[in-house]
Amino acid sequence: MDWLALLGLGAFVDRWRAHAIEAAIAVEDRTTLFRLELRDYRRSLALIVGLTIAAAALTVVTLTVLSGAIMVHFWETPERITAAWSVAGLWVLLWAAAVAALWSTARKAGNGFALTRQELGRDWQDIKERL
After folding, report:
1. What is the pLDDT of residue 7?
2. TM segments (predicted)?
3. How high is the pLDDT of residue 63?
């Protein structure tokens, strides 16, 4: 004998069961989305670290060798001061370019989990509307 049907609660229980199933599917979808975005976020962070290390190492080696070559070339000439300041200016320009590239990449990585936040925001709006 179905007591819930006799008491008129069958439709109520069925409706709540459907809501629970829908919620479970939504949680599974959001979890999958979170995992995918986490993988992308980790990849971008690893890329930032790798690019930072590579940029730092290559900048130091290249500019040290280049600076030495320029200073040796102009050492016995009257333009030695101009050459020294030119080398220093080049160091500053290359440093600024590396920092700008790093800043740009870090800003892109700062938008991690945007899709998950957006989806959860829509879910929250739906829940508030239903209540």
Report:
1. 66
2. 44-71, 83-103
3. 76
The residue whose two tokens read 């409706």 is 15
Count of residues in the chain: 131
* pTM summary value: 0.45
| CA dist list (Å): 127 to 16, 29, 74, 120, 123 | 14, 17, 73, 10, 6
Domain boundaries, the chain: 3-130
| Residue whose tokens read 């199933």 | 21
What is the identity of the amino acid at 118?
A: Q
Q: Which two tokens stand for residue 42?
A: 């980790």
Spell out a b/e string for 74-96, using b for 16 or more CB atoms within 10 Å of the CB, else e: beeeeeeeebeeebeeeeeebee
